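In response to reviewer comment 3 from the previous cycle, which asked for concrete evidence that the modeling workflow produces usable outputs, we include below a single protein chain processed end to end. The sequence was submitted unchanged, and the resulting structure tokens are shown without manual editing.
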Amino acid sequence: MANSNATAGSGGVNWRNLVTLGSLTVLVGVEVIGAAIAGGWALAGLLDLGTTIEYAFMVIFAAIAIWGMVKFVRAGLKIEPITRR
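The workflow returned the following structure tokens.
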């Protein structure tokens, strides 16, 4: 009978950690990227900078948010490895 425990065995995918990290990435990513885009839109609108600068701010802030999410996922992979050893 196979042991279905997520920490048992060697090699393979640790599904519990993969699902946890994937779910957390989606949850936090949507919030962070949404806030970054809204922040760029709000800042450009507050300063009345025009549509082109508004889109530029949204892209810049979204790029910063994506960079932050990459750092977040890398840190999460150190704590919750998705491969068993």
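Residues 15-46 form the longest helix (32 residues). We consider this sufficient to address the reviewer's concern, and the full set will be provided in the supplementary archive.
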